[in-house]
Design goal:
Blueprint: H1 9-24, H2 28-37, H3 49-60, H4 68-79, H5 84-97, H6 106-114, H7 119-136, H8 141-147, H9 153-161, H10 172-181, H11 188-202, H12 206-216, H13 222-228
Helix pairs in contact: 1-3, 1-4, 4-5, 5-7, 6-7, 7-9, 9-11, 10-11, 11-12, 11-13
Length: 234
Amino acid sequence: MDVTVPRSALADTVVTRLTTTYAEAADPARAADMRAYMKDVAPFLGLTSPVRRELARTVLAGTPRPDEADCAAVALRCWRLPEREYQYFAVDYLRRHIRRCSSGFLPVARHLVTTVPWWDTVDALAAHVVGGLVAADPKLRADTDAWSADDDRWLVRTALLHQLRHKDATDADRLFAYCARQAGHPDFFVRKAVGWCLREYAKTAPDAVCDFVDRHRDALSPLSVREALRNIGA
């Protein structure tokens, strides 16, 4: 699904500052190690998280709060840059400003999840961006329902993880339905996500999670069961 990059003077300023500031601090030796650690998903500049975030504060100094078009433009333009740190910047930017985005932002989020996907961007987009959009507009649950059955493992993982921060507001029926639907999925990242979302919900409703695992233990992978029950001793 292709998306159009909106016009945004703010994005022009931010991306120009960003590419200059990050490139000047690049560490090629560290970049090679980071690329190898991330299984060659993308090239890196070699910026550690503390350095990257300190530089990001410099980039954003004095800039106004964005609107939805600004958020989309910053994120999509960062996603078109090769080095992974630009995508990390975009994820952090969206986490900070997702409340300024409407349900109409979901196609952008979907594009980000499915473009150059790996757990390092997908997990934060799921929990903080998609999760924030769904919390603000429950009608978007129809979209996560579809994602939970998609052939794309990253959309499935996003559907499973989007309620990680919802606690008492978790739609438990949906959470358990998604986990049951993908209980036998062959992919490690999906099996891990099944266990992770159950483990997180167990902080709110441990008995419900134990009951779900008991009823679906034969279908769930050992990894999912182990993750789900890690903190409740069942």
